[in-house]
Amino acid sequence: MSKKIRLGILGGGSDSLIGILHRIASAMHDKYQIVGGVFNVNHADSLAFAKSIDLPSHRVYKDLDTLVDKELKLPQSERMQVVSVLTPNFLHFPMAKKLLENGFNVICEKPMTTTIEEAKILQKTLQNTKSVFAVTYTYTGYPMVRQMREMVLSGAIGKIQKVDAQYYQGWINPIIHDAKQRSSIWRLDPDKSGISCCLGDIGTHAFNMIEYVSDLKIESVLSDLNFVYKDNKMDVDATVLLRLNKQAKGVICTSQIATGEENSFIVKIYGDKAGLRWEQENPNYLFLMEEGKALQVLKPGHTYNSELALDGTKLPPGHPEGIFDAMGNIYKGVAKAVSNEPYNPAEFPTILDGTRGMNFIEKAVESHHKGNIWIKIENT
């Protein structure tokens, strides 16, 4: 019997952008074995996909209810231990809740739910279990993001004065300007995506990243959203001013109509001693900026990096690692938790991060609709 963690997957089939990322990440550190799941709402398509990746068909189920029922009838030594939820946003909450209620550990895509109320229900559900719950804010898995966090915590840049996160994409441009397309995709459908498109999809990454690297809490927000067309109910561009604890201030700029941009996620944090900058499209470089000194460039794999950063680095210096590796580090952290091994809490985002992400989305949308006013974020 394999000692690997038995992994099930919901969603992530052949037409899924995110599915291959999770499958490769789970295999990366030899900690998991995919044993089955529900890969598509159409059972025949799910079976065909399972066959294409060489999975046996007997644990490819028609729906989640069947999965839970059948898996719980298996001996504990055989049943799925962790289930990854890779479905559209509106399914995250009911699926995660049912899995937790039946004793499964959960890895959930973001945003964790579609409302803050759902997020709080999940928190309470988790409290009544011994399960592990992770939210895939993937970028926290990059070694140099982890190095950024450790340098801030060590006081290397001094007292934080300003934080700045910019996340620009242009992918929705062809869709938003076509009336038929913008009324048909799930990301612009509030019933499936929740109350936000841009903030819910990429703004929540920026929010989480700022709190992760700064170890501060965003306490209130003032936002201005852009919908482009009156018949479009979902934001596709957003600017959010931030007030954090310890007198720090900042801004989050996110857009899916930034023409020509691919996945430009840039995080900057400025202290009274120095500043740090990281760019997702060049993830192996962390820039240290100090007044009157030459710009320093830190790279992964070197002994000058922190233990947390080095633990997330698989290769020697000079061998680039990327998004698959970042997600792999999150799966690696969850594996440690599930196996009751020692781990750093910064190795994977938790349900608390997911709840704060939903809090941010709702308060930012509320700020816009109330006339661009400051709205406090609950301390969840």
TrEMBL record:
Domain Gfo/Idh/MocA-like oxidoreductase N-terminal intervals: 19-137
Name this protein carries in UniProt: Oxidoreductase, NADB_Rossmann superfamily
Alphabetized GO MF terms: nucleotide binding
Transmembrane stretches, start-end: none
Residue ranges occupied by any GFO/IDH/MocA-like oxidoreductase domain in the UniProt entry: 145-276
Entry-linked Pfam families: GFO_IDH_MocA, GFO_IDH_MocA_C3
